[in-house]
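User: Structure with 3-methyl-2-oxobutanoic acid, tokens only please.
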Amino acid sequence: MTDSKVTIQKIIQAKKKGRKLVMVTAYDYPFGLIADEAGVDMVLVGDSLAMVVLGLDSTVPVTMEMMIHHIKAVVRGCKRPIVVGDMPFMSYNTGIRDAVINAGRLMKEGGCDCVKLEGGVDFAQVVQAIVKAGIPVQGHVGLTPQTASALGGFKMQGKDATAARKIIDDVKALEAAGAFSIVAEAVPAPLGTLLAESVSVPIIGIGAGAGVDGQVLVTHDMIGLFDRFVPKFVKQYEKVRPLIIDAIKAYGQDVQASKFPAPEHSFGMSEEALAALKASLEEK
Ligand code: KIV
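Assistant:
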């Protein structure tokens, strides 16, 4: 965590200095402000908004327009951390030109500092082209939710030596392509450590153990705002959902008992104006 404006260079330097990076998700202005005030390094406007904000079953339906809308709101709240805009499914999978145009849109229209996209060796050329266009890229390997059905579901990845080796090849290819950091999701902890040792750019883990260079969690999972399902790798630091429900119930009870609004929540009117109003009503 840091007090001054975070830069891509500072993110890369953090690994060299052995400082662990902190990243959370945000999808709107209030959570952008909260993440900024909490002092995190990076704020990811993740396509996980599909599930935790929009009530969808997967990230697949997320569009560029949805991402730009949410990125803009978060950027308004985040002055100090780096804002990472997640590239939605099919915004970079159809070719290098599409990928560069769409990464540019997230930055130009959304205002984020960099983009994130899922994939390793197969997307190295895409990453290289976006970086060449002047847009910093964060990679994402291991469990890649946009292609979870091709991976056999939302399962841990890199279980056996061959699969684990492939993920090491992925991070190396992403580093060579110019990615400034790489998210590693749902891989065995020993593999997480090996990934961090394999490249000089920071590996940001989510379900990748403690041996990586930083951590990311979905804020709505971590604070217990969204609890329809809680992945094994999530630690719930708070359970705010029942608190919010209790607050709304208390409000409902006050409304029904005419206890809300109290005088301090109401606007007054001068006796003179009220008397004149009543008199005018009697005249008719
Ligand atoms: O969309 C998202 O929130 C993510 C994180 C799980 C890393 O990609």
